[in-house]
């Protein structure tokens, strides 16, 4: 839990972070694969169930009487929340935590320097991420 709090409070940049499941020592791509497997399992346990709500819209007719003048339709998946919870529990059983890794600020990288992080070390305030053609990469801010 402390890891999650630390990562969420990282003051590295003002932009949104990269939300992922993280476990030190496990490559990001492996985590993504395991997350997909957990999502498929959750879909089997809590399949999509679309419900349609119909709400009447009331208005006044020419004589001032209240009448139904139309309907508002709303569709949603009643199992979406359960599916997300089952996925999260599946990942937690495998030792992963949901974290938000800050996106690297290019100005800060230029000013402070950086080094590419090999593997997935414990997260701290010097770690940020950026997308490359090969996928996500972790960087450590400061002299390499």
TrEMBL record:
This is Uncharacterized protein. The lineage of its organism: Bacteria, Pseudomonadati, Pseudomonadota, Alphaproteobacteria, Rhodobacterales.
């Amino acid at each position: 839990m402390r890891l999650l709090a630390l990562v969420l409070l990282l003051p590295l940049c003002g932009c949104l972070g990269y939300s992922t499941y993280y476990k030190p020592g496990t490559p990001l791509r492996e985590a993504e694969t395991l997350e997909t497997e957990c999502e498929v399992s959750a879909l089997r346990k809590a399949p999509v169930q679309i419900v349609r709500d119909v709400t009447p819209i009331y208005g006044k007719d020419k004589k001032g009487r209240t009448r139904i003048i139309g309907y508002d339709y709303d569709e949603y998946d009643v199992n979406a929340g359960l599916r997300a919870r089952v996925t999260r529990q599946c990942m937690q059983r495998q030792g992963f935590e949901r974290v938000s890794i800050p996106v690297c600020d290019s100005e800060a990288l230029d000013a402070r320097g950086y080094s590419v992080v090999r593997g997935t070390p414990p997260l701290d305030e010097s770690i940020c991420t950026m997308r490359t053609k090969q996928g996500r990469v972790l960087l450590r801010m400061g002299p390499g």
